[in-house]
Amino acid sequence: MEVTFDPAKDAKNIADHGISLVRANDFDFNSARFAIDDSQDYGEERWNLIGWLDAKLYHLTVVFYESSTHAISLRKATRQERKQYAQI
Q1: Confidence bin at 88 (pLDDT 50/70/90)
Q2: How many C-beta neighbours within 10 Å does residue 37 have?
Q3: With respect to CATH, is domain 2-87 assigned 3.10.450.530?
Q4: Exposed site from 5, 28, 55, 86, fewest CB < 10 Å?
Q5: Quick one: three-class SS letters along the chain?
Q6: Could you give phi then psi for residue 82, rounded to 5 degrees?
């Protein structure tokens, strides 16, 4: 499935986290842990995923559409997120 993203959001993600949203194409969705992001009302159903990219755990926030996955944020997983992933 195609991964899309907003170019302006990509530039911000690179500045904030040192990684481009284009790398979401290489994210291992098959082994990822999925959780709905209900921390606030975004007007859409956002998902937080923790999974593998380049042999490290990453946190990816996405919106799933019928024909694509829209990446919103990508960053290295925190220590707490890595522990959660290992416990599941």
Answers
A1: low
A2: 17
A3: yes
A4: 55
A5: CEEECCHHHHHHHHHHHCCCHHHHHHCCHHHCEEEEECCCCCCCCEEEEEEEECCEEEEEEEEECCCEEEEEEEEECCHHHHHHHHHC
A6: -65, -40
User: How far apart are alpha carbons 80 and 84 in whole angstroms?
Assistant: 6
3-class secondary structure per residue, 21-41? HHHHHHCCHHHCEEEEECCCC
Token duo for residue 40: 């606030």
Q: What average pLDDT does the segment 38-61 reach? A: 96
How far apart are alpha carbons 23 and 38 in whole angstroms?
24
